[in-house]
Amino acid sequence: MDARPKYISLGPFVPWLQLPKPISWDQVFGRSGPLILEIGFGRGEYLVRQALESPSDNFVGIEIGWISIRKLLRAIARQGIENIRVIQADARVALEWLFPQRSLAMIYSLFPCPWPKKRHHKHRLFSRDFLRLANSRLQVGGELMVVTDHQGYFQWILEQSQRTGFISRVERTGPIFETKYEKKWTELGQREFFQLVFKKVEHIDIPQREEISLNTHKVPEFCPDKLTLKGHKDGAVVEFKETLYDPDRQKAMIRALVVEGALRQDFWVQVVKRGDHWLIGPAKGCSLVPTLGVQKALDLVFEAISSQKSQKRG
């Protein structure tokens, strides 16, 4: 069995959950330079080519799937590229949390999923809200480029671009990017694609999201077999999935799912005996963004355990 890693090196991979936010990209790259973001790099062919052609620019690639990230990491290592960093995250989450306002020189996305069915349009990325968010992270004069094979998606993005601080330029382009999906559509006979270029002319002020200091809780009593947890749906969505308890260690683990916009966090809350009381807080080893939703999950656990005491007295 081959135990060698398929990614060769994790050096360019940014563990963003563990870093102060927004990220200091000059520090991550070890130098200053124009910061360019690719959303959904696929196999990374175009990103690698751009980084090699512009060695003085700093490139960040965002993807959700690990297989795509692994392939890009291999290409970076094999070609000795030093000006690419890789993030595994939803693009909306990344722009909200990881990039300061006016920090990006350019954003581009090649052949994003068009979600062609009407009932799936809510999943489309380049909505008006997202375009306004992208605007806030771009420098004045910076550009956002989207290339798509789908005419309906192209027209939808144009409609969404109203009142987003951009002026738009629409072009038709041939197969020049050499990405997986471009090759796929070209092989199927499509020789022309839609290219939208949005230039920032007016700033939209959307401050980056900020972390909070989480407040942990302490309770004098805890009955794990009588614990009843209720979720929350106002603003942040909080759901409790399962509870585990170790009587020897006097420790409970409660799995919580917190959804705040595009940010989904699945983590464990621990309730552990310390002296004459029980501590409630995030379990050690959990990587999470400390948000109001996470705090709400801790508060709900505290309220549920505290209610046990009042019920016992009643």
Structure description:
This protein is an alpha/beta fold and about 325 residues long. The protein has 2 domains: about 15-200, Rossmann fold (3-Layer(aba) Sandwich), CATH 3.40.50; about 215-314, no CATH class. Helices cover about 25% and strands about 30% of the residues. The protein contains 8 helices and 12 strands. The strands form 2 sheets. It has a 7-stranded mixed β-sheet with strand order 3-2-1-4-5-7-6. The radius of gyration is 23 Å and the shape is elongated.
Overall average residue pLDDT:
93
Strand content: 25-35%
Give the tally of β-strands.
12
Could you tell me how far the N terminus lies from the C terminus, measured between alpha carbons in angstroms? 62 Å
Unreliable parts:
none
> What's the architecture of the largest domain, going by CATH?
3-Layer(aba) Sandwich
CATH topology of the largest domain: Rossmann fold
Which percent range fits the helix content?
25-40%
State the main characteristics.
Rossmann fold; 2 domains; 314 residues; alpha/beta; 5-stranded antiparallel sheet
Topology of helices and strands:
Layout: H1 25-29, E1 35-39, H2 45-53, E2 58-63, H3 66-79, E3 84-88, H4 91-97, E4 104-110, H5 128-137, E5 138-148, H6 151-160, E6 166-173, H7 180-187, E7 193-200, E8 217-219, E9 237-246, E10 251-260, E11 263-274, E12 277-282, H8 292-313
Parallel strand pairs: 1-2, 1-4, 2-3, 4-5
Antiparallel strand pairs: 5-7, 6-7, 8-12, 9-10, 10-11, 11-12
Can you describe this structure in just a few lines?
With 314 residues, the chain is α/β, with parallel strands linked by helices.
